[in-house]
Write a structure and sequence with these properties.
By secondary structure, this protein is an alpha/beta fold. It is built from 13 helices and 17 strands. A hairpin with a 2-residue loop joins strand 16 and strand 17. Bound molecules: pyridoxal-5'-phosphate (PLP). Pyridoxal-5'-phosphate binds next to helix 5.
């Protein structure tokens, strides 16, 4: 029996069935490469779903985490630590230079959104406008804002008072926002919906509409933030500054950390006792995030994400079976005609590439920001054969 089969069986016997059977059982990684428990090698063009910003086992992340865990791993929120304060300052400066803001740290994207939703309730209003196609996480609050009914319905009643409007439709947004609206939540790039990019005009309209009605503008950048689109925030492509930004995924480069950033008046809404979490701002996770930010800056990874992402988009678009390519930086989505996306993912894996399907005809790529042009070119050379293999299997 292969090691993969053995561990897959043990997985099924020990873990709750929330994800279905694992596609691989992985043992180690280095850069953009991972190896499974049977020694098979794959190039990782998914990066833990937009998490492994620096790839696997990056020396800067290894050093920062090793150093921190051997110094001080956790202290509780009765106490402060240097990496926690430094990271909050760095994030505020990267997200909205010169604007007064404050950060709440937590451990995941859903938890960051939960914090933002609770913050929005302190405006004294409850109504939230969210986008069709939105994914904000699986906790009861973030699920309440997620548009896919199949995710929500088994868990209803959820915190209510949510209106969904078509993504990118400024007129519908203007009609939905009233003096009762606490917040408008938008992913500047919708990841789980298949990589849909909001136009700068739509984000600017959202800024204007929320300001008119005294509602918070909240950007969920859990997937699109931290350099993935070639700028620190995807919102930076539009020049729009929101009141609230939520981050997670790529922030810790693999260590679990989330953050809710608030600017201006919104930054002062939480008072002692309103919110908290044991692991939020933990020195280990914040030291990891500082190493991620330092490495992105030192190695010019924002510019690299633009270059490699453009190359990947142009390359995959060249095949006529690809009908649309979307995205910014190394967050890339495409639509296929006549080929099943899950079959493409399976064919890619057989050929040694990890990619992902976000729908029956939609494929997503979110490689580490350290991905090289050689790896992109090697994938593009394999791409027509992957599509052939997926088509033959259909
Ligand atoms: N928000 C967005 C935009 C996401 O893409 C995700 C996860 O895919 C989440 C929130 C939830 O994050 P987490 O899985 O860390 O709770």
């Amino acid at each position: 029996m292969s090691e993969t089969l053995k561990w897959t069986e043990r997985y099924a016997g020990a873990l709750m069935n929330t994800f279905g059977p694992p596609k691989l059982v992985l043992a180690r990684g280095e850069g953009c490469r991972v190896w499974d428990v049977d020694g098979n090698e794959y190039v990782d063009f998914l990066g833990g779903i937009a998490v492994n910003t620096l790839g696997h086992a990056h020396p800067a992340l290894v050093a920062a985490v090793s150093n921190q865990v051997s110094t001080l791993a956790h202290v509780s929120n009765f106490f402060a630590t240097r990496p926690q304060v430094e990271l909050a300052e760095r994030l505020l400066e990267l997200a909205a230079p010169g604007v007064d803001g404050r950060v709440f740290f937590c451990s995941s994207g859903a938890e960051a959104n939960e914090a933002a939703l609770k913050l929005s309730r302190l405006t004294g209003r409850t109504h939230v406008v969210a986008m069709e196609g939105a994914f904000h996480g699986r906790t009861m609050g973030s699920l309440a804002l997620t548009s896919k009914a199949a995710y929500r319905e088994p868990f209803e009643p959820l915190p209510g008072d949510v209106t969904w409007v078509p993504y990118g439709d400024a007129e519908a947004l203007a009609a939905a926002v009233t003096e009762r609206t606490a917040a408008v939540v938008i992913e500047p790039v919708q990841g789980e919906a298949g990589v849909n990019v909001a136009s700068a005009q739509f984000l600017a309209a959202a800024r204007e509409i929320t300001a008119q009605h005294g509602a918070l503008l909240w950007f969920d950048e859990v997937q699109s933030g931290m350099g993935r689109t070639g700028t620190w925030l995807a919102a930076h492509h539009s020049g729009v500054t929101p009141d609230v930004v939520t981050l997670a995924k790529g922030l810790g480069g693999g260590l679990p950390i989330g953050a809710c950033l608030a600017f201006g008046d919104a930054a002062g809404l939480f008072a002692p006792g309103n919110h908290g979490t044991t692991f939020g701002g933990n020195p280990l996770a914040t030291a990891a995030a500082l190493a991620v930010i330092d490495t992105i800056e030192a190695d010019g990874l924002l510019a690299r994400a633009v270059e490699t992402g453009d190359r990947l988009r142009a390359g995959v678009a060249a095949d006529p079976r690809v009908t649309e390519v979307r995205g910014l930086g190394v967050l890339v989505g495409l639509t296929l005609a006549g080929i099943d996306a899950p079959a493409v993912v399976a064919a890619a894996q057989s050929a040694g590439w990890i990619i992902n399907a976000t729908g029956p005809d939609r494929v997503r790529f979110a490689p580490p920001l350290v991905v090289g042009t050689e790896e992109i070119d090697a994938f593009l050379a394999a791409w027509p054969g992957i599509l052939d293999a997926a088509g033959e299997g259909a």
